[in-house]
Amino acid sequence: MKILVCISKTPDTTAKIAFTDNNTKFDVNGVQWIINPYDEWYALVRAIELKEADASTVIHLITVGGPDADPIIRKALALGGDEAIRVNAESSDSYFIAMQIAAIVKQGAYDLVLAGKETIDYNGSSIGGMISELSDYPYVALATKFELAGTKATITREIEGGEEVCEAALPLTVSCQKGMAEARIPNMRGIMAARTKPLKVVEPITADTLTRVAGFVLPPAKAGVKLVPADNVEELVRLLHEEAKAI
Amino acid sequence: MSVLIFIDNAGDHIRKASQEVLSYGAKVAEQLGTTAEGIILGTVTYDLTTLGKYGVKKIHQVKDESLNQLDTQVYTKVIAQVAEATGAQVLIFSNNVDGKAIAPRLSARLKAGLVSGAVALPDTTEGFVVRKNVFSGKAFADIAVNTAIKIVSLSPNAYKIVTGDGTAEVVNFNATVETSKIKVTSVTKASGEILLTEAEIVVSAGRGLKGPENWGMVEELAKVLHAATACSRPVADAHWRPHNEHVGQTGYAIAPNLYIAIGISGAIQHLAGVNRSKVIVVINKDPEAPFFKAADYGIVGDAFEIIPKFTAAITKMKG
Ligand SMILES: Cc1cc2nc3c(=O)[nH]c(=O)nc-3n(C[C@H](O)[C@H](O)[C@H](O)COP(=O)(O)OP(=O)(O)OC[C@H]3O[C@@H](n4cnc5c(N)ncnc54)[C@H](O)[C@@H]3O)c2cc1C
Ligand SMILES: Nc1ncnc2c1ncn2[C@@H]1O[C@H](COP(=O)(O)O)[C@@H](O)[C@H]1O
């Protein structure tokens, strides 16, 4: 079985969010980059577990990004996976990115494509669905569990206010969230092995962009907290009712 | 030309998220000088004509029972047929579970630019620009859509429901419906509870509550407020509370009117899921807890003393 795991690079969860160039660019000054948590903890680790259960499994990682994504994809390789592909293009348009990944899916004839639930910077939740359509694969979004028996997958996915279990045959695209697997830390052996694992850089295919970021805006700063003494909870209730009109 | 609004099929009722997109879509149609129409796949047990009160003139229903189960591959092809037949210029979804599954697929199929997680009406003065959430609620981005057909998925709780007194004409749309490749074998629903992602008020508690046995008072507070309950990640990880209550960077991102955080320190990853709440109340015994910086109202004190008083004061106020 061949699995493709989509890996994206995102600012560390504690990164300061600021913008430059007249609020059109994210200020990368001093920002630490990480593997998008959903991609790492859930998609990648679940793929590694599947390989541990069946050694004939092949895991490829894909990222669409510039050379500055290399440390991130190497870190992902250190966790596990056999080889990585970087499509050498920078874009903020989900369709463009999905077109690149779909082209790789087609070439590699992958049985299973795993993506994260969303990137924590763009919050699109879009790439998984787009790749599925472009590769004509069934798509199970927001999965919390994934089991495989032969070519039949049993998946638990989130539904509005609950969850459901479904079955589907491979090939398949799945977007992964909490529940799929437990986070792992790369060990020394993995880190050493990652240095020699192949990282193929390929040029992008021609694809349109459907959207463009016109600018960024920061939310207005909070006015500051109004503290109410602990022995006067009635006052808090009054403020919430009369001033904030929230209850 | 039309604005086509996707209505989730919840069977016997219309979801709050669908009421929001209908209201939003009607306004977008008004902005563009066109009509708002709805689309619903599968069968429902309530009267769809009543949805006219949200401003839609017509509802296209594809009455095929196999569509009562969501399969994005099948849905996308059906919605594309309706979009083509109605000349839809803008398609609107909720950015909820169903919307996240379907809208991106449809975007790729129609080659229609998608803005997911919209928080405001489009700005149509120059092109079509929609504000959306980015960086987990820490910022917004204005996204310009370049394509003839546009898709917007609206963040839950970002647009106020508007009702009038219209009725909608319901038309049966004869679509080609493929057989699903996904078989649903079981469904588990938390019934009768208020959906966390749709709740107006959320009462949330963290490690400061010490253990699962102390959640009774949190639930009581939530009950008098008609609120949903939530928790911080360590609380869900320790199985003190079910994981579907976990909010934050790696859990649900919510935007209620009122978020009450009790015994939660306010780590940046927690804030990422709740910082779009309109009003934040923090109860924490540590005056230095970072959460106070993000709060509108706060009490420095012991949760075990304050929660019962809070519940009593609300009950009294509500008379
Ligand atoms: C990549 C990443 C992702 C993460 N994602 C999430 C996420 O999605 N959601 C999330 O919540 N966390 C997330 N975290 C964890 C986060 O960093 C914090 O560790 C977590 O939010 C802390 O939970 P807490 O506030 O309940 O516990 P603590 O930090 O232990 O805080 C407990 C608070 O309770 C107060 N307290 C104690 N006793 C009382 C009392 N009797 N009365 C009143 N107050 C009291 C204390 O003063 C303290 O402020 C993530 C972390 C990482 C690294
Ligand atoms: N540039 C990228 N390269 C590879 N995979 C990506 C990229 N961007 C997003 N993804 C994948 O798509 C998922 C959803 O991303 P998004 O639609 O941007 O929220 C992520 O969790 C990744 O798995």
Outline of chain A: globular
Total domain modules of chain A: 1
Tell me the fraction of residues in β-strands of chain B, as a range: 25-35%
The H/E string of chain A reads EEEEEHEHEHEHEEEEHEEEH
Query: Which compounds are bound in this model?
Result: flavin-adenine dinucleotide, adenosine monophosphate
Q: Compute the gyration radius of chain A: what is it?
A: 21 Å
What is the SS-derived class of chain B? Answer: alpha/beta
Name the beta content range of chain A: 25-35%
CATH topology of the largest domain in chain B: Rossmann fold
Oligomer: heterodimer
| End-to-end Cα distance of chain A | 55 Å
Count of structural domains of chain B:
2
The CATH homology group name of the largest domain in chain B = HUPs
Coarse shape of chain B = elongated
Keywords:
heterodimer, A: 247 residues, alpha/beta, Rossmann fold, 9-stranded mixed β-sheet, two-stranded antiparallel ribbon, 6 helices, 29% helix, 32% strand, globular, B: 319 residues, 2 domains, 7-stranded parallel β-sheet, 5-stranded parallel β-sheet, 26% helix, 26% strand, binds flavin-adenine dinucleotide, binds adenosine monophosphate
Describe this structure in words.
The complex is a heterodimer of chains A (247) and B (319). By secondary structure, chain A is of the alpha/beta class. Chain A has a single domain (2-219), classed as 3-Layer(aba) Sandwich (Rossmann fold). Chain A has 6 helices and 15 strands. In chain A, helix 2 links the parallel strand 6 and strand 7. Chain B has 7 helices and 15 strands. Chain B starts with a strand and ends with a helix. Chain B folds into 2 domains: 2-172, 3-Layer(aba) Sandwich (Rossmann fold), CATH 3.40.50.620; 196-318, TPP-binding domain (Rossmann fold, 3-Layer(aba) Sandwich), CATH 3.40.50. In chain B, strand 1, helix 1 and strand 2 form a beta-alpha-beta unit. By secondary structure, chain B is α/β, with parallel strands linked by helices. Classes of the chains: A alpha/beta (247), B alpha/beta (319). The interface between A and B is large, with 78 and 99 residues. Strand 14 of chain A pairs antiparallel with strand 7 of chain B. The site of flavin-adenine dinucleotide has 25 residues of chain B, from helix 5, helix 6 and helix 7.
